[in-house]
Amino acid sequence: MQKFSARLISLRKERGLTQEDLAKLIHKKRSTVSGYEIEDKEPEFETICFLAQYFGVSTDYLLGRTDNPEVNR
Questions:
Q1: Phi-psi region at 56: left, alpha or beta (left = phi > 0; alpha = psi -120 to 50)
Q2: Residue (of 40, 30, 36) closest to 48 by Cα position
Q3: pLDDT digits (tens, 9 = 90+) for 37-71
Q4: Measured between alpha carbons, how far is 4 from 7 in angstroms, rounded to an integer?
Q5: Pairwise CA distance, residues 31 & 64, whole Å
Q6: CA-atom Rg of the chain in angstroms
Q7: How far apart are CA 42 and CA 14, in angstroms?
Q8: Contact of 4 with 64, CB cutoff 8 Å
Q9: Cα 9–Cα 39–Cα 45 angle in degrees, nearest 5
Q10: pTM confidence score
């Protein structure tokens, strides 16, 4: 989940969000977001889908399966 971690940090910072801000959006604790970012915790499927939609990227991009952030519709 190394790419997920790096991409989450990058996307969060691009939006000017703190870990606390993001935690509130996904209804989790700040420590959970921190865990995602340091690769200590893995997000649930629903969380991955929400994050991808919120940041406007594909789940494949968020998970590191592609370098193309665009969502194919």
A1: left
A2: 36
A3: 999 999 999 999 999 999 999 999 999 999 988 87
A4: 5
A5: 23
A6: 11
A7: 22
A8: yes
A9: 80
A10: 0.91
